Amino acid sequence: MKTRTKWSIGLGLILLLSVFLMYNYIYQDHRDIASEAPAFTLEAEALSQAFETDQEKATKLYLNQTIQVAGTLSVIEGMTAMIRPNLFFALSETPKPSSKPTSGRIRVKGRCIGYDSLLNEIKFDQATIIN
Amino acid sequence: MKPILILLGLLFCAQGVAQKYYTKTGKIDFEASVAAFEPVKASHQAVTAILDTDTGDLAILALVKGFRFRNALMEEHFNENYAESDQYPKATFKGNLANFSTDDLGEVKTYTANGTLNFHGQSQEITTKVKLRPEGSTHVLETAFSVAPETFGIEIPSVVSEKISKQINIDVVLTLIKK
To answer: A20 and A58: one domain?
Structure first.
């Protein structure tokens, strides 16, 4: 094979690889909160207390983190769930009526998006009910 | 004498409690797309809003991390480089619907809302038309307006400036329920 042909094949491959890497970088997948290991696992009361004591500090610590919370279910409605005293979860899907808990202690995993100072609630999105 | 006192007391109590409508799952979409380039748009499905129907006062809060883009990298850049959502986690609107009256709640009506929009730690006075219509037991509030990123101290680097519109269009839909 001619040296020039070898060079063009080599260059072509490098080009292809860089396009592939670039594409993967630009169109990378979203975080999958449901399968992510929680960065924090704690009681609803404790989380609530942390935000009540120092909202700014708690926001710095928990914002954008995947958190698994255990607490007393207040209400599940459509694609939202509330855990006492003031945790709000936007669920990633509507719970099936068969597997939908109605009361008692539940565990929910979600991404903390911050403190809602209008209703004094801690908000999560992409949440899933564990049990 | 006593029943009258109780009645008066009840009346005062009733006046003291403000009528409020609210939502925790309001929607805000924004778009800053330029034709022929990848769409720059995001959607928020967990916006909080409270409308005080005694005064027409309206408060809206969107936690910035809750804006979801189709493109994960765009979402990351939005949070880290533009909105700086770690530092400024909240976007808020505080304002009032002019000439609001509880009596008009049952019909479709358009109001002028004046208020302050706060984003990226910067405030800007805005005026926008707000449509309020009853839907079942709820009241749906809709508004749309545009803002420029530089108003909120956000600089768009020249490398990407032609891919991001100079005006960002914001759409708000809030389905309010009685508190």
So the answer is: no
**3-class SS of residue A101:** coil
> Are the Cβ atoms of A28 and B72 closer than 8 angstroms?
yes
| pLDDT by 10s per residue, chain B, length 179 | 566 655 555 555 455 567 999 999 999 999 999 999 999 999 999 999 999 999 999 999 999 999 999 999 999 999 999 999 999 999 999 999 999 999 889 999 999 999 999 999 999 999 999 999 999 999 999 999 999 999 999 999 999 999 999 999 999 999 999 99
Q: To probe the interface with A, which of B60, B65, B77 has the most A CB atoms within 10 Å?
A: B65
HSE-CB at A93 with a 13 A cutoff on CA atoms is 8
CA distance A2 to chain B (A): 41
| Rounded Cα gap, residues B60 and B39, in angstroms | 26
**Distance from C-alpha of B165 to C-alpha of B172, rounded to nearest angstrom:** 19
Do residue A125 and residue B66 have CB atoms under 8 angstroms apart? Answer: yes
Give the closest-approach CA distance of B3 to chain A in angstroms. Answer: 37
Place of tokens 């730690």: B121
Of the candidates A31, A59, A80, which has its C-beta nearest B24's C-beta?
A80
Q: Are residues A45 and A91 in the same domain?
A: yes
Closest by CA position to A52, among listed A86, A3, A82: A86
**Identity of the residue numbered A54:** D
Which residues are B48's β-sheet partners?
B61
Contacts of B173 (CB under 8 A, 6+ apart): B26, B27, B28, B140, B141, B142
Per the structure block, which two tokens stand in for A109? 């995993």
In a domain? residue A35: no
Structural domain of A63: 40-129
Interface predicted TM-score (ipTM) of this complex, two decimals? 0.90
Give the orientation angle of helix A44-53 with respect to helix A55-62, to 10 degrees.
130
Distance from CA of A27 to the nearest CA of B (A): 6
Domain count, chain B: 1
**The CATH number of the domain where A73 resides is what?**
2.40.50.140
